[in-house]
Structure prediction request, 248 residues.
Amino acid sequence: MEAKVVAIFFAGMVGGLLLGALMLLLFLEILRRTDGGKLKPFDVMGREASGSQAQIQQELDRILRILFVTANPDPELPVDIDEEVRTLRNELKMVKFRDRIALHSYHAIRPDDLVRYVREESPVVVHFSGHASEHGIALRSDVDKYHVASGENLRQLFEDRGVQLVVLNACYTKQHAMEISQSVPSVVGTSSAITDEAARHFSCAFYRAIGNGLTIRDALRDGVDAASFYSSGDSYQKFGNVNRRLIG
Prediction:
């Protein structure tokens, strides 16, 4: 009987010591995660964030944010925009720097929508897909079928907003691209009509090269070569500095 009591006593002591050790470890972990009574920053997964706020911001700045906006306001001239976005999204999942690319796509864009999304997303790249003419790109309108946004409208919109590249993947956008190049370092436009297939394959090849760390010039070469199987690849024109990488 005495032996059983002694065994129970020592078992309780050992359990108490283990519990005390666990409590001490927990207390030390709390101390490690505090700094002068202030909690250290943690990321969205609950892990301790490393470095200063400046370093955290630097990491965020390394993300290539692509704002992909589309408009198809005229039902008599349909554009298969959904397929272009779907194909591009799948392609970006396989590129070298896929973990540093964020694609944000918005459809049926109106002028005020464009202003809002440029502000909210702080994009590095703005890509437009849809209809255009020598007068501007066609956006949705609350009054008529569509509203034309001129190159001058777009130049003013993008000025001093941190946009590094604009791609106007629509027909006859060369003049508008030239206008935008006054406020954006790199711009791509077209000098003639392009087919849906050509536009889709251009986007896929172009952003695949960008996502793999190639220069804008190399990406444009791939895009033009891909589009040339379906339309005149010579339609795509570049403006500004294309000898630089956006990621990598």
Summary: The longest strand covers residues 64-71. The chain is about 45% helix and 20% strand.
